[in-house]
Amino acid sequence: MGATRTEVARAALERLVVDVPDFPEPGVVFKDITPLLADHDGLTAVVAALAEAGRDGDGTPVVDKVVGMEARGFILAAPVALALGAGFVPVRKAGKLPREAHAVSYALEYAEATLELHRDAIAPGERVLLVDDVLATGGTVRATRELVAACGGTPVGVSVLMELGFLAGREVVGDLPVHSIAVI
């Protein structure tokens, strides 16, 4: 039997993601995904694996929108939305959206931030998959979940390339199902 989509994607992550120590500040190990993005096969594998979280057991898409968090989440969420036949919605840093938006402030592993989502980006009742590159402390996902709920949408899951298990972000996310290609 062949490897699963997640196993193929995990192998691509192991091969192509580069650790950069002390970036953006001392003590942080940044996961540079740009080599993965530049590799067609690797990118194809991770998009397919991330999209699995937006499908039911028969492979049928179960989401109306895919939300990508700034900035690397944009890069991943847009092709995931295409793979699922869903719309893509960006969640931006404060002051980047041109129209009326909901805003939520939260703590990062090394800073604080505010995220915004256009008030009309998600219709009440729409099912939403949240996509990002890394689940760390869970603050970004929790804030995004709050933004989706403020629009009346229903978050159905989170899909990430990597989960930093030692930071316990899943606990902050709560009962929302989390699909991680790799836990490190």
TrEMBL record:
Keywords: Cytoplasm, Glycosyltransferase, Purine salvage, Transferase. Residues 43-162 form the Phosphoribosyltransferase domain. The keyword Transferase applies. One of its GO terms (molecular function) is adenine phosphoribosyltransferase activity. It holds the Pfam family Pribosyltran. The keyword Glycosyltransferase applies. It is found in: Cytoplasm. It catalyses: AMP + diphosphate = 5-phospho-alpha-D-ribose 1-diphosphate + adenine. Pathway: Purine metabolism; AMP biosynthesis via salvage pathway; AMP from adenine: step 1/1. Belongs to the purine/pyrimidine phosphoribosyltransferase family. Homodimer. Catalyzes a salvage reaction resulting in the formation of AMP, that is energically less costly than de novo synthesis. This is Adenine phosphoribosyltransferase. The gene is apt.
